[in-house]
Amino acid sequence: MNQNDLLNMRYATVQEARTEMSQLLEARPANYSLDAPLYNDPHMFRVDVEEVFQKEWLFVGMTSEIPNRGDYFTVEIAQNPVLIVRDADGSVNAFHNTCRHRGSRVCLEHRGKVANLVCPYHQWTYDLKGNLLYAGTEMGDSFDKSQHGLKKAHCKTAGGFIFISLGKEEPQGDFDEFLATLEEYMAPYDVENTKLAVESNMYEKANWKLVIENNRECYHCAGNHPELLNTILEWDDTNDPRAPQDFLDHYAEQAAKWDEEGIPHEHRSFGPGKRNRIVRMPLKKGTKVMTIDGEAGCKKMLGNIKNPELGSMRILHLPNSWNHMQSDHFIVFRVLPISAQESMVTTKWFVHKDAVEGVDYDPARLRQVWDATNDQDRILGEENQLGINSVGYQPGPYSETFEFGIMNFLEWYTDTIQKNLKK
User: Fold this and answer.
1) Are 391 and 10 in contact (CB under 8 A)?
2) Using omega within 30 degrees of 0 as the cis cutoff, is the peptide bond preceding 272 cis?
3) Where is the Rieske domain positioned along the sequence (predicted)?
4) Which whole-number Å values give the CA distances from 73 to 94, 112, 121, 141, 403, in the listed order?
5) DSSP H stretches of helix in 240-362
């Protein structure tokens, strides 16, 4: 626990924080930011972990990161280590990365390939479906291997995206409807025939909700993101109240081209606060993708795509991901909480699996725009956090034309916390 966490600890117990959180959310005006404890108190953060990150569906990665049998990657979700692995029949499985013997992590590397899952502590061995195969010869005749397999996490895939839930029960709602739409909208990109080109992890000294809030509005873009604004249009979609007629005309021209290619583009959203949302948006006229000059980032286009000016299909999944799908590469973002005032933002760039680094694409050029944008957002988030920590902070109003995306996010957050607190 860092110094800021200690200074902002207001509640004696997590239970006290749970009660106060419910009351604060109940009383909060829908168009105002949250009270300070919801952004900086360690016990409130613990409630977020328990009621959101240990119960809801979370984005963790893409299926093309683990294309073959035994390929795996690991992720840590607020001190919960998780293992994602491809098994022999091609299924993607998620397990708690903790041995059923004495709890040691089984897979220690971020990425790897294994024949079986072997705990390095005492060599307990599991197959790729989590079944315990070997526990040595010292466990006694009454020991039942079948009762000591790795503990599974709920896992679903669609359109190349991998989602997991750490809850005891699978979250309910319209998630499967979103997954069916995601499968349809991602089909042109043929994710299974892509590969991870480059990855970055950025640590931001800000509460996870501030990271998401910053992403949910472009009110700050003109003053902070020159590289991004070389190509991106700040309008959220065709229903954006700020959208001018020339944008609507540009959208209509691009939509006609998408229709010719059979590329889906109708805005679809699901759940309270538009928790899961897909919208295809054109980029600025004369630009192809989100590179510094708007020109192609990779010589090989994805899947069956023929139009290099496909724009960006934006995919939102609350609580922890936003994504940009383009003609020649796509970018996925994942946010994970670390403490009340620290988060990790992971960015991954994917290209066609046959693309050759240094010939078809340059990783430094691929990541140039979003490296700059991520760092700019990090500074904004950290300054936001420092201001909220002040005794002078009080919740302020959102702009309903520029910041409606934040209001949607907090609608979902409030609904989710209140629902889960009652269980």
Assistant:
1) no
2) no
3) 57-164
4) 10, 7, 19, 35, 35
5) 245-261
Token pair 């899961």 in the structure block, residue: 276
Let me know whether 271 and 330 are in one domain.
yes
Q: Answer yes or no: do 213 and 350 share one domain.
A: yes
| Residue 13 CB-density burial (10 A; 0-12 exposed, 13-18 middle, 19+ buried) | exposed
Residue 410 domain flag: no
Structural domain total, the chain: 2
Q: What is the C-alpha to C-alpha distance for residues 199 and 148, in angstroms, rounded to an integer?
A: 35
| 22/27 Cα distance (integer angstroms) | 9
Verify that 139 and 188 share a domain, yes or no: no
Digitized pLDDT (tens) for each residue of the chain, 423 residues in all? 566 665 667 777 899 999 999 999 999 999 999 999 999 999 999 999 999 999 999 999 999 999 999 999 999 999 999 999 999 999 999 999 999 999 999 999 999 999 999 999 999 999 999 999 999 878 888 899 999 999 999 999 999 999 999 999 999 888 999 999 999 999 999 999 999 999 999 999 999 999 999 999 999 999 999 999 999 998 877 788 888 899 999 999 999 999 998 999 999 999 999 999 999 999 999 999 999 999 999 999 999 999 999 999 999 999 999 999 999 999 999 999 999 999 999 999 999 999 999 999 999 999 999 999 999 999 999 999 999 999 999 999 999 999 999 999 999 999 999 999 987
Distances in whole angstroms, Cα of residue 44 to Cα of each of 19, 321, 396: 10, 21, 20
Q: Are residues 205 and 101 in the same domain?
A: no
Cβ distance 343 to 206 under 8 Å?
A: yes
**Quick one: 112 and 189 in the same domain?**
no
What does the radius of gyration of the chain's CA atoms come to, in whole angstroms? 22
Which amino acid makes up residue 15? Q
Amino acid at 131: N
Cis peptide before 120 (omega within 30 of 0): no
Strand, coil or helix: 13: coil
pTM for the model: 0.96
Do 234 and 323 reside in the same domain of the chain?
A: yes
In a domain, 423, yes or no: no
User: How many Cα atoms within 13 Å fall on the side-chain side of residue 393?
Assistant: 19
Q: Which residues contact 225 (CB under 8 A, 6 or more apart)?
A: 372, 373, 376
Beta bridge partners of 81: 76
CB 284 within 8 A of CB 294: yes
